[in-house]
Design goal:
Blueprint (H helix, E strand, L loop, with lengths): L1 H44 L2 E5 L2 H4 L9 E13 L2 E16 L2 E27 L5 H6 L10 H6 E5 L2 H7 L2 H10 L4 E13 L4 H16 L10
Antiparallel strand pairs: 1-2, 2-3, 3-4, 4-5, 4-6
């Protein structure tokens, strides 16, 4: 019986180790496939591909650049509609403990960046989530109102400079954003930045950069002179 018990233990142990290596192999293979797809996308547009560069993980702050040990990979850099752009995959991990068990959680985001004509005050546009705009305002959320009730109820706008926010939120931009629906984007220094959950997919890069360029096309040129 003892020998049978040892044999069962060995079989289970080998099976667990085998599953662990198989999972690692599948994960590595999928990562390689994603990298190849992004690399081919960049080559097809004459853009530069960078496998990994830690400076992209620390260049910006705020959502989603949080957590510990963030990495940037599958980076593409080029020009789109006359503007300098880049896109990459951002990854970081967090750890939680519950009931004596420690778990590691992986977080992955697709990042999209368009260079602005000039550095500007911080400005962000997000969906209101479960709260409507006026409800959020009543609860004390900082916000910049556009004067368009439909827009203000669906979007939460923040800015370090209320006057700058008012200059940006003109009717052409409001009408465009009401048509697209909420998506997260912001101005941070010299860049416009947008992001979404998940690994970077080549087919998402151009549509998101087009949306960002559409926003910039609807902002009056004198806005970029504001300091």
């Amino acid at each position: 019986m003892e020998q049978i018990g040892i044999a069962v233990f060995v079989v289970v142990f080998v099976a667990v180790i085998g599953l662990w290596f198989a999972a690692r192999y599948v994960k590595q293979r999928r990562q390689e496939q994603r990298q190849q797809a992004v690399q081919q996308f960049a080559a097809g547009r004459g853009w530069q591909f960078i496998g990994e560069d830690e400076s992209y993980a620390s260049r910006w702050t705020g959502k989603p650049f949080t957590g510990w040990g963030g990495t940037a990979r599958n980076i593409v850099v080029g020009q789109h509609r006359g503007r300098n752009v880049c896109s990459f995959e951002y990854h970081y991990s967090t750890v939680s403990t519950s009931g004596g068990t420690t778990r590691r959680h992986n977080h992955d985001f697709s990042i999209f960046v368009v260079q602005l004509p000039a550095p500007v005050p911080a400005f962000s546009v997000e969906g209101e989530g479960i709260f409507g705009g006026k409800v959020a305002e009543a609860l004390g959320f900082e916000r910049v109102d556009s004067g368009d009730p439909d827009f203000d109820n669906d979007f939460k706008v923040k800015s370090d400079d209320a006057r700058f926010g008012a200059l940006v939120l003109q009717q052409p931009l409001l009408q465009m954003l009401k048509a697209t629906g909420p998506w997260d984007w912001r101005f941070t220094g010299p860049d416009m930045l947008s992001y979404e959950n998940g690994f970077l997919k080549p087919e998402l890069v151009q549509p998101r950069l087009d949306l960002m360029c559409d926003v910039l096309d609807r902002i009056p040129s004198d806005v970029w002179q504001h300091r």
